[in-house]
Write a structure and sequence with these properties.
This protein is α/β, with parallel strands linked by helices and 212 residues long. The protein has one domain: Alpha-Beta Barrel (TIM Barrel). The chain has eleven helices and eight strands. Strand 5, helix 6 and strand 6 form a beta-alpha-beta unit. The longest helix has 17 residues. The protein is globular, with a radius of gyration of 19 Å. The structure holds SN-glycerol-3-phosphate. SN-glycerol-3-phosphate binds next to helix 7.
């Protein structure tokens, strides 16, 4: 399972680069980074990781989406163009896939959207678990449906579990066999931490020192 960092903050990428396969960004994260030179920002992030770096188009209409996607794809070989799961986004996906441009179909909230993304040759599709659960829906059921469909139908599109809110969702996604998860830095940090590890180290250190 690939682990991506969900950020547009270069310092976070530097901090966690030994544990991640790539990075996912979105317009909100880029705005939060405070960098208006986003082409240069994406180039810097691509230099730091060996895997894919998802960058989202902000256009809505198919021809504009295509032009923006081709511009983004030229920034670096590892750029994976994020497209929305919309009529225009899916049609653009079909065309970009035929051109060999890697795509990540984002804002996926239903299995039918994921199915169409796979039919259009998407490299990744990103179901948003946390946002679904924020409004009372079951994100895990959606993930189960999508992974089940892709397995039964033999689709090559990788499921990228996104909008992750806690460690438990990371494990649930891994158990379902998703191809990738993207984690905000705070959740990746949580994955390292366990109070019993911290407590155990304190006990070992105290006992060791008592012997000296
Ligand atoms: O980058 C896409 C997704 O992971 C966003 O998550 O936390 O804004 O719902 P969130």
């Amino acid at each position: 399972m690939e682990i991506f960092l969900d950020t547009a903050n270069v310092n976070d990428v530097i901090l966690y680069k030994d544990f991640i396969d790539g990075v996912t960004t979105n317009p909100s994260l880029i705005a939060k980074s405070g960098r208006s030179d986003y082409g240069a920002l994406i180039g810097e992030i691509c230099q730091l990781v060996s895997g894919s770096v998802s960058v989202e188009v902000t256009s809505r209409e198919r021809n504009d989406v295509l032009a923006e996607a081709r511009y983004l794809a030229k920034i670096h070989n590892n750029v994976c163009v994020k497209l929305p799961c919309t009529w225009d986004g899916l049609r653009a996906c079909r065309e970009l896939s035929a051109e060999g441009i890697s795509t990540n179909l984002t804002l996926c909230f239903s299995a039918s959207q994921a199915l169409l993304a796979a039919k259009c040759g998407a490299t990744y599709v990103s179901p948003f678990l946390g946002r679904l659960e924020d409004c009372g829906h079951d994100g895990l059921t959606l993930l189960e449906e999508i992974t089940g469909i892709f397995e039964i139908q033999g689709y090559e599109t990788r499921v990228l579990a996104a909008s992750i809110r806690n460690r438990k969702q990371v494990i649930q996604a891994a158990l379902l066999g998703v191809g990738a998860v993207t984690l905000p830095p705070s959740i990746l940090k949580q994955c390292f931490d366990h109070p019993l590890t911290t407590q155990g180290l304190e006990i070992f250190e105290r006992d060791w020192k008592s012997m000296l």
